[in-house]
């Protein structure tokens, strides 16, 4: 019975955290600032500690998670309108390299050593500080790098190549399942897809692991 109770509390806690994360937005996960990191730790502790405390029931778990979620949500709303408070809670980007020159002051202020900086530069395909015009340490701990013009990859404009229209590849079949909405929104129907499959010797959708279409190109098909 005790294990059943723990399982139920885990399930309730999981549902609450999942809903809360959805409500707070994807940026909470993908752009984890110091404030977001602390919030995530507290949420985990609220649920984790409650599981093994006999005096804490499901109602208290719900209250703690919801109340903390409301506090985070209100804080996010305030920081959207109040720039000063946003800077306090989320910080601001730091320019580590400016005009090709490394700032020791910014390194020290952000507790970043040269080896860590080089690692972050390499992750952005810059293998030497001399290649970098600007390097900005973002509030979520990632590094944005602008290479010097001599080290930047050439663009079509640089090579005098005529620009072409960009288009997004769209999946029509994934894991053997027909994505009908993608198909119809692209202006096609199931009969068209069947004809395209037959052109490549495929008689049934069951044989298709993945199918992708991009404007101006043929249907790409990967079979099982």
Number of domains: 3
Mean pLDDT: 78
Task: Give the oligomeric state.
Answer: single chain
Tally of DSSP helical segments: 9
Structural class: alpha+beta
**Topology as a string of helices (H) and strands (E):** HHHHHEEHHEEEEHHEE
* Silhouette: flat
Number of strands: 8
Characterization of this structure:
- With 224 residues, the chain is an alpha+beta fold.
- It has three domains: 2-88, no CATH class; 94-147, bsu07140 like domains (CRO Repressor, 2-Layer Sandwich), CATH 3.30.240.20; 170-223, bsu07140 like domains (CRO Repressor, 2-Layer Sandwich), CATH 3.30.240.20.
- 48% of the residues lie in helices and 16% in strands.
- The chain is built from nine helices and eight strands.
- It has helices at residues 2-24, 27-30, 34-51, 58-81, 83-90, 104-109, 114-122, 180-185, 190-199; strands at 94-98, 101-102, 132-137, 143-147, 170-174, 177-178, 208-213, 220-223.
- Strands 2-1-3-4 form a four-stranded antiparallel β-sheet. A four-stranded antiparallel β-sheet has the order 6-5-7-8.
- β5 (170-174) and β6 (177-178) form a beta hairpin.
Which features characterize this protein?
224 residues; alpha+beta; CRO Repressor; 3 domains; 4-stranded antiparallel sheet; 9 helices
Please give a quick description of this structure:
The chain has three domains: 2-88, no CATH class; 94-147, bsu07140 like domains (CRO Repressor, 2-Layer Sandwich); 170-223, CRO Repressor, CATH 3.30.240.20. Helices cover 48% and strands 16% of the residues.
